[in-house]
Amino acid sequence: MNVMSVKTSISYRKIWGIAYPIFLTLLVQNLIQVTDTAFLGRVGEVELGASALAGIYYVVVFIIAFGFSTGSQILIGRRNGEGNFHQIGEIVIYGLLFLILLALVLFGLTRIFSKQILSLILSSPQVLDATMEFLNPRMYGIFFSSFNVMFRAFYVGTTRTKVLSVNAVLMALCNVFFAYALIFGNFGFPQMGIAGAAIASVISEALSVVFFIGYTFFVVDLKKYGFHTQLYKSKGVIGKILDISSSIMLQNLLSLGSWFFFFIAVEHLGERPLAVSNIVRSLYMLISIPIFALAATTNTLVSNAIGAGKTEEVIDLVWKIIRLAWIIVSGLLLLVLLSPRFFISIYTTDIGMIIDTVPTLCVVVLLMPVIAMANIFFNSVSGTGNTRTALGIECCVLLIYVSYTCISTVYLKLPLPICWLNELIYAFFIFLFCFLYIKKGNWRDKKI
Question: Taking each helix axis from N to C terminus, what angle separates 314-338 and 422-440, rounded to the nearest 10 degrees?
Answer without folding.
Answer: 160
